[in-house]
Structure formats: structure tokens, C-alpha cells
Design a protein that fits this description.
Largest sheet of chain B: 7 strands, mixed
Oligomer: heterodimer
Largest sheet of chain A: 5 strands, parallel
Number of strands of chain A: 7
Low-confidence stretches of chain B: 87-128
Mean pLDDT of chain B: 89
Strand content of chain B: 15-25%
CATH architecture of the largest domain in chain B: 3-Layer(aba) Sandwich
Number of domains of chain A: 1
Number of domains of chain B: 3
CATH class of chain A: Alpha Beta
Order of helices and strands of chain A: HHHEHHHEHEEEHEHEHHH
Structural class of chain A: alpha/beta
Structural class of chain B: alpha/beta
Radius of gyration of chain B: 25 Å
Distance between the termini of chain B: 56 Å
CATH topology of the largest domain in chain B: Rossmann fold
Number of helices of chain B: 14
Mean pLDDT of chain A: 93
CATH superfamily of the largest domain in chain B: Thiamin diphosphate (ThDP)-binding fold, Pyr/PP domains
Bound molecules: thiamine diphosphate, magnesium ion
Largest interface: A-B, 57 and 64 residues
Low-confidence stretches of chain A: 1-12
Helix content of chain A: 40-55%
């Protein structure tokens, strides 16, 4: 894969995790892996903070769902996947795109609705894609990724190229009927797909307890004989290990695998959510005790990394993000003629 | 360097808000992420976070200020130790780049330039509250007391009144109860009627719409809220196949008294999957009634009628209109019959036919046209099925010209139907072809400039009227 852009290379952490885990085992990270995870998660965190600021300034419009707090899920998954594996998610998608190695400045330019954005400014925050990076969106409708992801897996099996579809959706989306239709087909046809439920405890203002008869999402595939694993989604190593195990399962032709990554979103559902349905203390407690980035940082420092080294990573990430913001505010809007293009081929 | 803190936009449709209170004082140190103020929109109270480290050097808009426009500088953050004189207090931004950034990056320039902008009074750039317009409607008797009411309040009151009146009426949908409605339309209903009658659902449109239809078969009167009609596409099978056809299929035994309601059409910058107008889709289905009010007064009277109707009613609201006010009657039982259009403005030269937010465009265009000596009659359909074709024909017979205006796509749209009916029933009266102003024939783009082009505009209505008049 050509390193088209230094930013892209910076974020692309594919293939970092090596070795097969035993069932449920959490593999230790090498120092390089820790550092790669740290960088990738920090890039998402800073990028999202910047996106929140640009939204407040009116440069980003519409809905903007930030991934802050959940960084370990997609980064851990990406570390265990191959670049030929497909990723697909819903509208909380900026982190997935960065983890897939999409260019921060073009993601940001899409957020501001400019012509160099990944969708030429036509898709916005919720609808972004990169065929080159095997990122299939970016979907605004809750539940949609499940069957779409199964379709990607269908194509993988059809071609027999050994690729796997990593399909992400939320705890709220997990109650959609189409998820279970997808589970059934995936197991029936042994599709190579890892379903990853990002359980951040809330769907907009509705907690899992208020919406879910079975709150253990890893068991939701049991009726279809799909193996499930419930993991600490704030620990990037736990995610990388579980996804590694799941991918091995899929690549061995055994069909789908289900992972429930228990995570948390720090910000409101979207920028217009006052988040009155949970206490400040609850948010604060997760931030202080389980922050995915702080965990890696602490391990790095304990393992002999210097504050200085990490500061350099921070500075490099900040530079990328501020370059992305500059680019996204100075890039022109799409040409008016673009209104009529891309409707059909 | 000083940095302006701007009044943030917190939702796709927010244009202004109240600066409820400051949580930091002038001179306080702040770091990025600190909550420095609280602001209130018509929907919610939100926190403003500092985006930079420094000292809160100046508060430009005092706590309690109402109607502060988005992007107005509300405070200045300076670096620690930096002195800032009054000359450095920022002027309110001359333009609000949030809405249509014609010049990309105008907002950050405003921030960067702030330190050199000359002194300005520390006053909020207040957006005057719009006066609430009267609604011409035959159902409102003379001498009725009118009070200004938002569309949001009118819808809520209509539901609350009908719930008090009939124990069988209940509300079901996502975030309708504890969250008080994603768009705050069901505000207060849980508190008054309790969780038995105001039911939060999982995100399972297909399931809960079907469940509501079943409950209606059994004699209850569900008000089934879709967070937006875009998500009702997951439930359209039950709306059409189960709710719309069962009376016929059962030989008249099983009726379905249900209201499917929620915002329809474009909001602001929410792009293709959240901006579709479904008016034409639902209005094609025999067995359904379809209503799309343009103002608070009609919304109230029509929603009450819809809840009492023995048939399934698809009630299409509009998010942009939720926060707007109109004079609304205070009447014991204010009902507007389903299936009756209203003349929103009388005129002789041309008939403009529209519904929902399109009526606002038509009224604005009509005022502009009047200055050029063209008097447009505006017919507000209010109900799309059954469509009040006689009201359209009556107007067209008078004016001889017709322009249909809608936000939806042109092909097989409401305008296409109007054109067909007018040529069938008033062909001899026409002095020009019936013209249509519609949303463009593309999925809704996200970019601000493209979105503007995709939506029908007042200028397009004016141009169509002139074309119909051969001017
Ligand atoms: C079919 C559908 N219904 C409703 C919505 C509105 N909506 C957007 S996100 C959301 C909550 C989803 O929660 P979850 O699946 O847990 O994902 P999270 O936002 O927590 O990432 C809702 C109700 C939608 N986009 N699509
Ligand atoms: Mg969730």
C-alpha cells in the first residue's frame, strides 16, 4: 500500500497485533503497539475535539456525533485487521475513518462541506466512504450497517479472498429487527463477518436498561449459534485480542462472530444533546478511571517511555489536527454543478 | 493573543439562544473543556466550553441576555498575564457565517481578526423576536381570543387535550417520554399522563409501528411518533400494508384509528438520509389520510381531528416550523376538518398551491410580487389526501394560472398531481401551463451552498409566477 500521505500512515495501524490469542485471552502489547494505539486514539480524540469546536463556530452543520471516549474500540479492531478487511459503521464514524487511514484533512473537509471532502461535501459527518481504504460508511439510519456489513461479507465469501467484514453498530441499533435477520443469514451461510456492538450504554437519551430485554449483547447471537464475547472496550488490548480471535474464526470458514465492546461516550449524543439523562459524576468517573487513552499512556510511562516522547506524539497529533482544520476551513465549497452529479452512473 | 468565544450553534436549526448564565467570572482562569456558561435554546439548556487555555478577560454578553444570535462574540479569552484594554473587546461579527458561508473560513477570520477590531458596545446582537402572524382560516370564529403559540406548543397541546378527553389515546415512540421528545414536541406529556400512556420505545420503527397498528385494531388510539419520517421508511410496510389496507381487506370490519406523526422534509444540513419529503409517497395510498400543516393554528386543529379520526392519518410536520409562532385560537374544542384547504391570501392574478413550509415561501413571494402589481392567491392545501381539489379549481378558475410549490422531488410529486387535476377539471380556464417549483431531482446534499440550491426558494416561486404570467 503506497503511503500517499504522512497523516494517513500515521493513523493506519493495521496489522500491528501479532500472534493468536487463546479463547478470551488478552494479548500483551509490545511497546511499538502501545505507541501505535496511543497515537491512533489520540488522533481521534483531538480530531473530535476540534470538530466540536468547528461545530460551535458554525463551520460544521447538521448532526455531528463525536466518538470521544470510544476510541479504543475501533483502534483495537483496526490493529488486528488486515487492510483488505472492510469496515462499516453508522453515523458516529469519524474515528472509524481515521483508524482506517483516511486523511484527517479530507474527513474534516467533509465535515465542513467542502469540495475536497471524501464525499465532495455532499455527504457530511454521517455519510462518508472510501473504497480505497475499504471503509463503506458512514450511514445515517440506525441498524443499517448490520445487513450492509453482511453483504460485504457475502461478497468476501463469494470471491473467496479471505477478507472479513468488520461491522459496527450501537447498543440502540442492536434492537433493530434487521440485526437478527442479518445474524440468521450470516450463520446460515457462514459469512465472514465480525459484528461489533459498541455498547456505550445509551442510545440518545435511552439507557440500555430502558431499551433492552437482554442487556448482554454478546448473547444476542446465541439463538443463531453465533459465538459472542463481551469485552472491556476501554482497553485497546482487550479489543485487539477479541477481534483477533474473531477474525481467525471467520477466516477459518466458521462463520460470523459477535463482540460486545463495553464503552462510553463522553459527549452528548450529538452536538444538540444536553445529556440530562445521566449524571456528571457518571461521566467524570469513567473519564477518570477508565479513559482508554490514559490507560495506554500510563502503561507506556510505566514501561519506560519518557514524558517527552509522549509530548512529541501529542504535538504531532495536534499539528495534524490543526492542519486538517485549516484545510477544512479554507477549502472552497463544492462547485454548484456538483448538485447534479453522482445521482446515477 | 486574545480569542473570541462565540455564541455556539448547538443544533442544525439553531439561529439564536438565551445566554442563561455565566459560570466563570471575568478574570477567572480557564482551560480547554471548562464549562464557562450555560445557554438555552428553545429545545434545551446546553453548556459552553472553553476551547482554549487562558483567562476569561471580558464578558461581552451578560448572563440572562435573550435572543443572542449564533456566532455573536460573547466573551474574550486572553493569554494569562495579557492585559486587554477595551479596544480589544470584540465587535459582534458583522455577518453570521453559520448559515451560508459564502466565503469559506469567514468565521475563523472573524476570530483571528478580533483582537484588532475597534471597541464596540458590549451588547448582544439581538435577533428581534418575529411578530406572530395571524392565520386566515374559516374555522376560527370572529372575536376568538388568539395567543401567539409555536407549532411545537400547538402540537403538544392538541395531544394533551385529546389525551384528557379520551383514555384510549396514548403516545408511543422513541424518546417521547423521559427525554420529552427528540424535538421536544411531547414536552410534559409523561409528567401529566404517566408512562402507561406516554411510552418510550427501543429504536425499532418497524416493530413499534406494527405494534401501534395492532393496538389500534383492538380499539386504542395510538399517536405513533417517528423521530423523523426518514425513519418511518423502516415502518412503511405497516403504515401502508397494515394500517392503510385492513379496513378494505376486512370488508369494513377492522378500522385503524391511528396517527403517525413527526417531522418530515429537510431540516438544516442533515443531508440525504435525514431530509426527505414523503408527502407524495403517503398521499398515493388509498386508505390513508395525509395532513401537512403550515402553521401552529392549523396544526392544532388538524392534529385534534386526526386523533379523533377513525382512520390512519399520516401527519407530516416540519422541523423548521416547530419554533415559529402564529396566532392560535383559544377555543374549547378547536377542530379543523381533514380534507379542507384554506385560502391563505386572496389574489386574482395567479394561484399558488402549496402545503407545510412551502406556504411560507408562497406568502413571502406573494408579498414581493404585490409590490410589482401582481396579486397572487395562496391556497394552503393543509390535507394532501383527500386533496381539496375543488378549492384549487375554484381559485384557478378565477386566476387562470397555477404554480404548485413543494419541497419534495418533482417526479410524481404533489405538484404533478395538481397539474393533472387542474388540466382535467379547469383546462378551459387556463391561460398558461401549470408550473411546478419543487426540490431538485437529487438526494439532499450536505454542503451549505448545494443544499440551498437543492431546496425550492422564494426567488424560484417568483420566477415561476412571472413565467406563468409571461412577464
Ligand atoms: C431508524 C432510525 N431511527 C432513529 C434514528 C435517530 N437516531 C439516531 S442515533 C440514535 C441512537 C442510536 O443509539 P446507538 O445505536 O446506541 O448508537 P450511539 O449513538 O450510542 O453510537 C437514534 C435514535 C435513526 N437515525 N435511524
Ligand atoms: Mg449507544
Amino acid at each position: 500500500m503506497p503511503a500517499a500521505d504522512k497523516n494517513a500512515k500515521f493513523a493506519d495501524v493495521a496489522g500491528a497485533a501479532e500472534g493468536a490469542p487463546a479463547e478470551g485471552e488478552i494479548l500483551a502489547f509490545s511497546r511499538e503497539q502501545e505507541l501505535a494505539a496511543y497515537r491512533a486514539m489520540l488522533l481521534i480524540r483531538r480530531f473530535e475535539e476540534k470538530a466540536g469546536q468547528l461545530y460551535g463556530m458554525g463551520l460544521i452543520g447538521g448532526f455531528c456525533h463525536l466518538y470521544i471516549g470510544q476510541e479504543a474500540v475501533v483502534v483495537g479492531a483496526r490493529m488486528s485487521a488486515k487492510s483488505s478487511d472492510q469496515f462499516i459503521t453508522a453515523y458516529r464514524d469519524h474515528g472509524h475513518m481515521l483508524a482506517c487511514g483516511m486523511e484527517p484533512k479530507r474527513v474534516m473537509a467533509e465535515l465542513t462541506g467542502r469540495r475536497s471532502g471524501y464525499s465532495k461535501g455532499k455527504g457530511g459527518s454521517m455519510h462518508m466512504f472510501s473504497r480505497e481504504k475499504n471503509f463503506y460508511g458512514g450511514h445515517g439510519i440506525v441498524g443499517a450497517p448490520a445487513p450492509l456489513g453482511a453483504g460485504l461479507a457475502f461478497a468476501d465469501l463469494y470471491r473467496g479472498d479471505g477478507s472479513v467484514s468488520l461491522t459496527f453498530f450501537g447498543d440502540g441499533a442492536a434492537n433493530q429487527g434487521q440485526v437478527y435477520e442479518s445474524f440468521n443469514m450470516a450463520e446460515l451461510w457462514k459469512l465472514p463477518i465480525v459484528f461489533i456492538v459498541e455498547n456505550n450504554r445509551y442510545a440518545m437519551g435511552t439507557s440500555v436498561a430502558r431499551s433492552s430485554a437482554q442487556a448482554n449483547f454478546s448473547m444476542r447471537g446465541a439463538a443463531f449459534n453465533i459465538p459472542g464475547r463481551q469485552i472491556d472496550g476501554m482497553d485497546v488490548r482487550a479489543v485487539a485480542s477479541a477481534v483477533r480471535e474473531a477474525l481467525d474464526w471467520c477466516r477459518a470458514g466458521k462463520g460470523p462472530f459477535l463482540i460486545e465492546a463495553q464503552t462510553y461516550r463522553y459527549r452528548g449524543h450529538s452536538m444538540s444533546d444536553p445529556a440530562k439523562y445521566r449524571s456528571k459524576e457518571e461521566v467524570q468517573k469513567v473519564r477518570e478511571e477508565h479513559d482508554p487513552i490514559e490507560q495506554v499512556r500510563a502503561r507506556l510511562l510505566a514501561g519506560g517511555a519518557s514524558e517527552d516522547e509522549l509530548k512529541q506524539v501529542d504535538a504531532a497529533v495536534r499539528r495534524i489536527v490543526s492542519e486538517a482544520a485549516d484545510f477544512a476551513t479554507n477549502d472552497p465549497e463544492p462547485d454548484p454543478s456538483e448538485l447534479w452529479t453522482d445521482v446515477v452512473l | 493573543m486574545t480569542v473570541n468565544v462565540l455564541m455556539p450553534a448547538l443544533s442544525p436549526t439553531m439561529e439564536q439562544g438565551k445566554l442563561a448564565k455565566w459560570l466563570k467570572n471575568e478574570g477567572d482562569k480557564v482551560k480547554a473543556g471548562d464549562v464557562i456558561a450555560e445557554i438555552e435554546t428553545d429545545k434545551a439548556t446546553m453548556e459552553v466550553e472553553a476551547v482554549d487555555e487562558g483567562v476569561l478577560a471580558r464578558i461581552l454578553v451578560p448572563g440572562g441576555a435573550e435572543n443572542v444570535a449564533v456566532n455573536t462574540p460573547i466573551a474574550v479569552i486572553a493569554e494569562e498575564g495579557e492585559e486587554i484594554g477595551p479596544a480589544e473587546a470584540a465587535a459582534p461579527a458583522a455577518s453570521a457565517p453559520a448559515k451560508a458561508p459564502d466565503i469559506p473560513a469567514s468565521a475563523p477570520q472573524a476570530v483571528a481578526a478580533a483582537a484588532t477590531v475597534p471597541a464596540a458596545p458590549a451588547e448582544p446582537a439581538a435577533v428581534p423576536a418575529a411578530p406572530s402572524p395571524a392565520v386566515a382560516a374559516p374555522e376560527i370564529p370572529p372575536d376568538t381570543t388568539l395567543i401567539p403559540m409555536t407549532m411545537r406548543e400547538a402540537l403538544r397541546d392538541a395531544m394533551a387535550e385529546e389525551m384528557r378527553r379520551d383514555q384510549n389515546v396514548f403516545v408511543i415512540g422513541e424518546e417521547v417520554a423521559e427525554y420529552q421528545g427528540a424535538y421536544k414536541v411531547t414536552q410534559g406529556l409523561l409528567q401529566e399522563f404517566g408512562p402507561r400512556r406516554v411510552v418510550d420505545t427501543p429504536i425499532t420503527e418497524y416493530g413499534f409501528a406494527g405494534l401501534a397498528v395492532g393496538a389500534a385494531f383492538a380499539g386504542l388510539r395510538p399517536i405513533c411518533e417517528f423521530m423523523t419520517f426518514n425513519f418511518a421508511m423502516q415502518a412503511i410496510d405497516h403504515i401502508v400494508n397494515s394500517a392503510g389496507k385492513t379496513l378494505y381487506m376486512s370488508g369494513g370490519q377492522i378500522n385503524c384509528p391511528i396517527v403517525f406523526r413527526g417531522p418530515n422534509g429537510a431540516a438544516a444540513r442533515v443531508a440525504a438520509q435525514h431530509s426527505q419529503d414523503y408527502a407524495a409517497w403517503f398521499s398515493q395510498v388509498p386508505g390513508l389520510k395525509v395532513v401537512a400543516p403550515s402553521n401552529a393554528s392549523d396544526a392544532k386543529g388538524l392534529l385534534k381531528s386526526a386523533i379523533r379520526d377513525a382512520n390512519p392519518v399520516v401527519f407530516l410536520e416540519n422541523e423548521i416550523l416547530y419554533g415559529k409562532q402564529w396566532d392560535t385560537p383559544i377555543l374549547e374544542d378547536f377542530l379543523i376538518p381533514i380534507g379542507k384547504a384554506r385560502v391563505a391570501r386572496a389574489g386574482e392574478d395567479v394561484t399558488l398551491v402549496s402545503f407545510s413550509i412551502g406556504v411560507s415561501h408562497c406568502l413571502t413571494a406573494a408579498e414581493a410580487l404585490a409590490k410589482e402589481g401582481i396579486e397572487a392567491e395562496v391556497v394552503d392545501l393543509r390535507t394532501l389526501r383527500p386533496m381539496d381539489v375543488p378549492a384549487i379549481i375554484e381559485s384557478v378558475r378565477k386566476t387562470g394560472r397555477c404554480v404548485a410549490v413543494e419541497e419534495g422531488w418533482p417526479q410524481c410529486g404533489i405538484g404533478a398531481e395538481i397539474a393533472a387535476r387542474v388540466q382535467e377539471e379547469a383546462f378551459d380556464y387556463l391561460d398558461a401551463p401549470v408550473l411546478r417549483v419543487t426540490g431538485k431531482d437529487v438526494p439532499m446534499p450536505y454542503a451549505a451552498n448545494l443544499e440551498k440550491l437543492a431546496l425550492p426558494s422564494v426567488a424560484e416561486v417568483i420566477a415561476a409566477v412571472k413565467a406563468a404570467l409571461y412577464r
